[in-house]
Amino acid sequence: MSFRKLAGVFLALCATTSVTFAQDWTTSKHGPEDMAGASNLMTSDKALEAVALIKTGTVLSIGRDYTADMPLFGTRVFAVRGTRGLAGGPLGSNEIIWMDDFIATEIGQVGTQFDGLSHIGIGGAQQMFYNGTPASEVVGSNGTRKLGIEHVKPFFTRGIVLDFVALRGAPLEAGDEITVADMEAALAAQGLDEPGSGDVVLLHTGWGRHWIEDNATFNSGEPGIGLEAAAWLIERDIAIVGADTWAIEVLPNPDPTAAFPVHMELIPKNGIFIHENIATERLVEAGVSEFAYIYSPVPIAGATGSPGAPLAAY
Question: What domains appear along the chain, each with residue ranges and CATH number?
């Protein structure tokens, strides 16, 4: 039995959830050597579909500012340092001068962050990442050796934002799980078609109200999807799940023994990306439910994720 098949059997035996997921995830549908995941779904047809959603020509940034006082997970840091004066110059007869800066941070894992395929793996007897890639082939001292963010293709596709604040009549609280029934109700209330292959689904929970205003509360937990909703999204072959929260999934999890199980299902098992800390309230305030989602990860070779502001054009 091959290593990949053996790994699939091992993971099937270890499954603890009643939600049904495909267990033999160790070879991607995009090919055994693929490192681009769901960004492979970005076709010319998807781009043309997205263009048709742009009616007013408005382009809205839905990324948050990167500041030293933003909430950070765990012991992550964010610090910007200038050069304490000019970085260079005057130079030339025109006496040009310039400034530079130095940023110290986990560059792809702070602020509005895009989780790449080398960010989340699965432990156990065989430690693996997306496409059944052994951890020994991914982990490196100068960035990841495989599955770096540079392999992810740019996104230009249909995006939708599901407004659960409007659906429930109030902002959601930590531990509130968004179910399939919730998503179907939000789609109906907003007059949206279901997400399809290559689409981006953003979740507006109201949790972003705590951003900087109350970082302790923001980091203490969050509303979000559970495994049931994750399976529903996976079945629809979406490209990205995003939210106004720092992990997009319900925390604390209903299973107190589980740690970020939705991340595990989306990223390593299905190559679906996660976009966290999105300013979804900007879309809701603008009355926008469907739009062209535009985002290109910063191609830092070997990075596990990317900063950057996604755009919504409508």
Answer: 3-66+109-313 (3.50.30.50)
